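U., I forgot to send this yesterday:
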Amino acid sequence: MRPTTLDPTKTGQEAETLELGLRSKIIGQEDAIHQVVEMYQTYLSGMSSPGRPIANLMFLGPTGSGKTRLVEAMAECLLQDPRAVIKIDCAEFQHSHEIAKLIGSPPGYLGHRETKPVLTQEALDQHHTPTVKMSLMLFDEIEKASDTLWNLMLGILDKATLTLGDNSKVDFSRAMIFMTSNIGAREMNALIKPRLGFAGPLENRRETSDITEPLNNEMARSGIEAACRQFTPEFINRIDKMVVFKPLGSTDLNRILEIELNSVRQRVFNVDASRRFVFTVTASGKQFLLNEGTNVEYGARYLKRAIERLVVQPLSKLMASGQILNGDWIQIDYAPQAATLTFSRQDEGLALREMAGLVDPAGVSRAAFAAA
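Result:
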């Protein structure tokens, strides 16, 4: 038999489906998506390390770059619900005594029987489905927690086990552990900001996506070094991979704008069936939203706030005042004289199928259009 060369870069169908789903929801973070899919593929193959969580991943990077959103997108793709994540807001655990909320009070302490711990086996497994028996655990803004929580996590990250206050055990071997942190974001932002007036304006650098590969590597190194300074070696040594999220460029924000506009359209189609309408945004209108919603330090969240302020709130007023009716086609355009967006009715009385033809149906619920 002749030797056959194998291709270890290929993935299975389930992992490929997850990757495609994540790439449709998460923009500009290819490395993070790759790392998540690799860990998931290892789990599907039964090759995950025994007695450990499926993966321990720390996401670093500036705010608004998609760290938490990636975990939610994974829950949406695998568990059909973006909220199917056991999320711990680490800002609530800045003092050592607050750990009792997670594991319960030990015997002999006040509230032992009354305090129900958050991290029970039942809570960990609550989002399991008949086909996906895994949990997604998120420690959000891990740097804000006290070192007591970090020490508590050592056993989870290393042995996939947590002992509660009543001495019962919680098994994390079917959980993917995610930690997010903004550590190093200040240093990363400083690397792409103009220095002493010799570099071009920051806005120009963003528009031309002037973030080179060496600069990306430098920012990644800066973020990882900041994390290593913050956490103990014992903690860092239990993390499988630290992934640094890149600041979003203009091309990324353009794609995110389309996703967010489709999200608003989804809201419209989720309201009472007698009040559904469709809206489109012209090229100049989209450019205005990008201009108003681009900020290097705040990322995609700044763009989302601009859409809420400039699109969602005006549409809400038009609906409440009866100016938008069921079946209307509303066009949003930019008026340079007034430096604002304008809203005009292009057509009325459209059937659902006609409205579907005006927008990207992939961005709006298929169930909404199925009734057309």
